[in-house]
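Deliverable D4.2, example record:
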Amino acid sequence: MATLQWAWGDPGICQMPKLEQVTKGIKLVQARATSLSRSPKMPVTPSLLRRLKQVWQGEGNQADCGMLWAACTMCFFGFFRSGEITVPSAGSFCPKTHLTFEDVTVDSRQAPTLLRIRLKTSKTDFFRVGVDVFIGKTDNELCPVAAVLAFMVSRGNGPGPFFRFQDGSPLTRPRLVAEVKRTLEKAGMDSRAYSGHSFRSGAAARQGVEDSTIKMLGRWRSSAYQLYVRTLREQLAAFSKELAGGSAGPSQTVSRRQIAASGQGDSAR
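Output generated by the structure prediction step:
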Protein backbone atom coordinates (compact mmCIF):
# COMPACT_ATOMS: atom_id res chain seq x y z
CA MET A 1 0.00 0.00 0.00
CA ALA A 2 2.82 2.42 0.87
CA THR A 3 4.55 1.61 -2.43
CA LEU A 4 1.37 2.32 -4.42
CA GLN A 5 0.85 5.55 -2.54
CA TRP A 6 4.38 6.66 -3.36
CA ALA A 7 4.22 5.51 -6.98
CA TRP A 8 0.86 7.13 -7.73
CA GLY A 9 1.53 10.23 -5.70
CA ASP A 10 -1.91 10.08 -4.14
CA PRO A 11 -2.06 10.17 -0.33
CA GLY A 12 -5.71 9.10 -0.44
CA ILE A 13 -5.14 5.88 -2.33
CA CYS A 14 -5.28 3.86 0.87
CA GLN A 15 -8.91 4.94 1.28
CA MET A 16 -10.03 3.61 -2.12
CA PRO A 17 -12.95 1.18 -1.43
CA LYS A 18 -12.03 -1.45 -4.04
CA LEU A 19 -8.38 -1.44 -3.04
CA GLU A 20 -9.43 -1.75 0.59
CA GLN A 21 -11.47 -4.86 -0.27
CA VAL A 22 -8.47 -6.39 -2.05
CA THR A 23 -6.37 -5.74 1.04
CA LYS A 24 -8.98 -7.40 3.24
CA GLY A 25 -8.99 -10.42 0.93
CA ILE A 26 -5.24 -10.75 1.20
CA LYS A 27 -5.46 -10.56 4.99
CA LEU A 28 -8.12 -13.30 5.03
CA VAL A 29 -5.94 -15.60 2.94
CA GLN A 30 -2.98 -14.95 5.22
CA ALA A 31 -5.10 -15.56 8.32
CA ARG A 32 -6.38 -18.88 6.98
CA ALA A 33 -2.85 -19.99 6.13
CA THR A 34 -1.75 -19.13 9.66
CA SER A 35 -4.68 -21.02 11.18
CA LEU A 36 -3.52 -24.26 9.54
CA SER A 37 -0.51 -24.29 11.84
CA ARG A 38 -2.58 -23.80 14.98
CA SER A 39 -3.76 -26.61 17.18
CA PRO A 40 -7.51 -27.09 16.61
CA LYS A 41 -9.63 -26.01 19.57
CA MET A 42 -12.16 -28.31 21.16
CA PRO A 43 -15.79 -27.64 20.28
CA VAL A 44 -18.39 -26.67 22.85
CA THR A 45 -21.05 -29.38 23.15
CA PRO A 46 -24.47 -29.44 24.83
CA SER A 47 -22.99 -31.41 27.73
CA LEU A 48 -20.31 -28.77 28.22
CA LEU A 49 -22.95 -26.03 28.12
CA ARG A 50 -24.74 -27.82 30.93
CA ARG A 51 -21.56 -27.80 33.00
CA LEU A 52 -21.14 -24.08 32.46
CA LYS A 53 -24.72 -23.46 33.53
CA GLN A 54 -24.32 -25.63 36.62
CA VAL A 55 -21.32 -23.63 37.80
CA TRP A 56 -22.95 -20.26 37.10
CA GLN A 57 -26.10 -21.26 38.95
CA GLY A 58 -24.01 -21.72 42.08
CA GLU A 59 -22.23 -18.38 41.90
CA GLY A 60 -23.20 -15.17 43.67
CA ASN A 61 -24.01 -12.56 41.04
CA GLN A 62 -26.88 -14.24 39.23
CA ALA A 63 -27.54 -11.22 37.00
CA ASP A 64 -24.04 -11.30 35.51
CA CYS A 65 -24.06 -15.09 35.34
CA GLY A 66 -27.37 -14.93 33.51
CA MET A 67 -25.84 -12.51 31.03
CA LEU A 68 -22.89 -14.85 30.41
CA TRP A 69 -25.25 -17.80 29.99
CA ALA A 70 -27.37 -15.87 27.47
CA ALA A 71 -24.23 -14.91 25.51
CA CYS A 72 -23.00 -18.51 25.41
CA THR A 73 -26.31 -19.94 24.25
CA MET A 74 -26.63 -17.22 21.61
CA CYS A 75 -23.11 -17.99 20.36
CA PHE A 76 -23.76 -21.72 20.17
CA PHE A 77 -27.26 -21.83 18.71
CA GLY A 78 -26.65 -18.87 16.41
CA PHE A 79 -23.28 -20.10 15.08
CA PHE A 80 -21.82 -16.75 16.09
CA ARG A 81 -18.19 -15.85 16.25
CA SER A 82 -17.61 -14.55 19.78
CA GLY A 83 -16.63 -11.15 18.39
CA GLU A 84 -19.94 -10.76 16.56
CA ILE A 85 -22.08 -10.39 19.68
CA THR A 86 -19.54 -8.63 21.92
CA VAL A 87 -17.33 -5.56 21.60
CA PRO A 88 -13.55 -5.61 21.08
CA SER A 89 -12.76 -3.45 24.10
CA ALA A 90 -14.48 -1.41 26.80
CA GLY A 91 -14.33 1.88 24.89
CA SER A 92 -14.91 0.64 21.36
CA PHE A 93 -18.71 0.28 21.28
CA CYS A 94 -20.40 1.68 18.17
CA PRO A 95 -24.20 1.34 17.75
CA LYS A 96 -23.81 1.23 13.95
CA THR A 97 -21.63 -1.86 14.18
CA HIS A 98 -22.20 -3.73 17.42
CA LEU A 99 -25.19 -5.59 18.84
CA THR A 100 -27.76 -3.45 20.69
CA PHE A 101 -31.07 -4.10 22.45
CA GLU A 102 -32.99 -3.11 19.32
CA ASP A 103 -31.18 -5.76 17.29
CA VAL A 104 -32.74 -8.63 19.28
CA THR A 105 -36.47 -9.28 18.78
CA VAL A 106 -38.95 -12.13 19.22
CA ASP A 107 -41.76 -13.47 17.07
CA SER A 108 -44.38 -13.05 19.80
CA ARG A 109 -44.51 -11.23 23.11
CA GLN A 110 -47.14 -13.55 24.52
CA ALA A 111 -45.58 -16.88 23.53
CA PRO A 112 -42.12 -16.32 22.02
CA THR A 113 -40.63 -19.26 20.13
CA LEU A 114 -38.07 -17.50 17.95
CA LEU A 115 -35.31 -14.95 18.37
CA ARG A 116 -34.23 -12.73 15.52
CA ILE A 117 -30.77 -11.21 15.89
CA ARG A 118 -29.82 -8.50 13.45
CA LEU A 119 -26.12 -8.87 12.71
CA LYS A 120 -25.11 -5.53 11.23
CA THR A 121 -21.66 -6.59 10.10
CA SER A 122 -19.38 -9.62 10.20
CA LYS A 123 -16.04 -10.84 8.96
CA THR A 124 -17.41 -11.98 5.61
CA ASP A 125 -19.87 -9.08 5.17
CA PHE A 126 -17.45 -6.66 3.52
CA PHE A 127 -20.14 -4.19 2.46
CA ARG A 128 -22.04 -4.28 5.78
CA VAL A 129 -25.29 -5.41 4.24
CA GLY A 130 -26.25 -7.17 7.47
CA VAL A 131 -28.11 -10.42 8.05
CA ASP A 132 -30.89 -11.70 10.30
CA VAL A 133 -30.00 -14.76 12.38
CA PHE A 134 -32.91 -16.84 13.70
CA ILE A 135 -32.72 -18.99 16.83
CA GLY A 136 -35.60 -21.18 18.03
CA LYS A 137 -36.60 -22.43 21.45
CA THR A 138 -35.43 -25.89 22.48
CA ASP A 139 -37.89 -26.68 25.28
CA ASN A 140 -35.11 -27.84 27.60
CA GLU A 141 -32.59 -26.38 30.05
CA LEU A 142 -30.36 -25.15 27.21
CA CYS A 143 -33.06 -23.04 25.57
CA PRO A 144 -31.43 -19.93 24.09
CA VAL A 145 -34.76 -18.13 23.77
CA ALA A 146 -35.45 -18.49 27.51
CA ALA A 147 -31.88 -17.49 28.41
CA VAL A 148 -31.83 -14.38 26.23
CA LEU A 149 -35.33 -13.22 27.24
CA ALA A 150 -34.48 -13.62 30.93
CA PHE A 151 -31.39 -11.50 30.42
CA MET A 152 -33.33 -8.86 28.48
CA VAL A 153 -35.73 -8.45 31.41
CA SER A 154 -32.79 -8.06 33.78
CA ARG A 155 -30.91 -5.72 31.46
CA GLY A 156 -33.67 -3.33 30.50
CA ASN A 157 -34.00 -1.63 27.14
CA GLY A 158 -31.42 1.10 27.67
CA PRO A 159 -28.83 2.14 25.07
CA GLY A 160 -25.36 0.68 24.78
CA PRO A 161 -24.04 -2.76 23.91
CA PHE A 162 -26.56 -5.57 24.24
CA PHE A 163 -24.43 -7.73 26.53
CA ARG A 164 -23.22 -5.80 29.54
CA PHE A 165 -22.60 -6.43 33.21
CA GLN A 166 -24.70 -5.02 36.04
CA ASP A 167 -22.14 -2.28 36.60
CA GLY A 168 -22.68 -1.10 33.02
CA SER A 169 -19.38 -2.35 31.62
CA PRO A 170 -19.70 -4.06 28.23
CA LEU A 171 -19.02 -7.72 27.62
CA THR A 172 -15.88 -7.70 25.50
CA ARG A 173 -14.70 -10.65 23.47
CA PRO A 174 -11.59 -11.18 25.69
CA ARG A 175 -13.79 -11.00 28.82
CA LEU A 176 -16.24 -13.59 27.46
CA VAL A 177 -13.42 -15.99 26.63
CA ALA A 178 -11.79 -15.39 30.01
CA GLU A 179 -15.05 -16.00 31.90
CA VAL A 180 -15.72 -19.23 30.00
CA LYS A 181 -12.19 -20.46 30.64
CA ARG A 182 -12.46 -19.55 34.34
CA THR A 183 -15.74 -21.44 34.62
CA LEU A 184 -14.34 -24.49 32.85
CA GLU A 185 -11.41 -24.55 35.24
CA LYS A 186 -13.82 -24.31 38.15
CA ALA A 187 -15.67 -27.29 36.70
CA GLY A 188 -12.43 -29.26 36.71
CA MET A 189 -11.72 -29.06 32.99
CA ASP A 190 -8.66 -28.00 31.02
CA SER A 191 -9.64 -24.65 29.55
CA ARG A 192 -6.61 -24.40 27.28
CA ALA A 193 -8.36 -26.54 24.67
CA TYR A 194 -11.18 -24.01 24.23
CA SER A 195 -11.49 -20.55 22.71
CA GLY A 196 -14.16 -18.10 21.70
CA HIS A 197 -14.51 -19.99 18.44
CA SER A 198 -15.44 -23.22 20.25
CA PHE A 199 -19.14 -22.31 20.33
CA ARG A 200 -19.34 -21.85 16.56
CA SER A 201 -17.29 -24.94 15.82
CA GLY A 202 -19.32 -26.99 18.30
CA ALA A 203 -22.58 -26.13 16.55
CA ALA A 204 -21.01 -26.93 13.18
CA ALA A 205 -19.82 -30.33 14.42
CA ARG A 206 -23.33 -31.66 15.06
CA GLN A 207 -24.02 -34.89 13.23
CA GLY A 208 -27.01 -35.80 11.07
CA VAL A 209 -27.36 -32.38 9.44
CA GLU A 210 -26.66 -31.64 5.80
CA ASP A 211 -23.48 -29.69 5.07
CA SER A 212 -25.47 -27.16 3.05
CA THR A 213 -27.65 -26.44 6.10
CA ILE A 214 -24.63 -26.05 8.37
CA LYS A 215 -22.92 -23.71 5.92
CA MET A 216 -26.03 -21.60 5.55
CA LEU A 217 -26.72 -21.36 9.28
CA GLY A 218 -23.09 -20.55 9.99
CA ARG A 219 -22.94 -18.01 7.16
CA TRP A 220 -19.86 -19.63 5.61
CA ARG A 221 -19.02 -18.60 2.07
CA SER A 222 -16.92 -21.60 1.08
CA SER A 223 -19.29 -22.79 -1.69
CA ALA A 224 -21.12 -20.75 -4.29
CA TYR A 225 -24.24 -22.91 -4.04
CA GLN A 226 -25.04 -21.37 -0.66
CA LEU A 227 -26.44 -18.41 -2.59
CA TYR A 228 -29.28 -20.67 -3.75
CA VAL A 229 -30.13 -22.29 -0.41
CA ARG A 230 -33.49 -21.24 1.01
CA THR A 231 -34.64 -22.33 4.48
CA LEU A 232 -37.87 -21.30 6.17
CA ARG A 233 -37.71 -19.57 9.55
CA GLU A 234 -39.65 -22.48 11.08
CA GLN A 235 -36.92 -24.88 9.94
CA LEU A 236 -34.25 -22.66 11.48
CA ALA A 237 -36.17 -22.61 14.75
CA ALA A 238 -36.59 -26.39 14.77
CA PHE A 239 -32.86 -26.90 14.22
CA SER A 240 -32.11 -25.36 17.64
CA LYS A 241 -33.80 -28.37 19.24
CA GLU A 242 -31.51 -30.69 17.31
CA LEU A 243 -28.47 -28.80 18.59
CA ALA A 244 -29.66 -29.22 22.17
CA GLY A 245 -30.06 -32.98 21.81
CA GLY A 246 -26.60 -34.06 22.94
CA SER A 247 -22.89 -33.90 22.30
CA ALA A 248 -21.44 -34.25 18.84
CA GLY A 249 -20.25 -37.73 18.01
CA PRO A 250 -17.22 -38.71 15.92
CA SER A 251 -17.58 -38.41 12.18
CA GLN A 252 -16.81 -41.27 9.82
CA THR A 253 -15.67 -39.13 6.92
CA VAL A 254 -13.66 -36.00 6.43
CA SER A 255 -15.63 -33.13 4.96
CA ARG A 256 -15.29 -29.42 4.45
CA ARG A 257 -17.68 -28.93 7.36
CA GLN A 258 -15.24 -30.71 9.71
CA ILE A 259 -12.42 -28.48 8.49
CA ALA A 260 -14.51 -25.42 9.25
CA ALA A 261 -15.53 -26.83 12.63
CA SER A 262 -11.92 -27.44 13.62
CA GLY A 263 -11.15 -23.76 13.13
CA GLN A 264 -9.01 -24.27 10.02
CA GLY A 265 -11.73 -22.98 7.71
CA ASP A 266 -12.51 -19.93 9.84
CA SER A 267 -9.64 -18.12 11.47
CA ALA A 268 -11.61 -15.68 13.65
CA ARG A 269 -11.43 -16.49 17.34
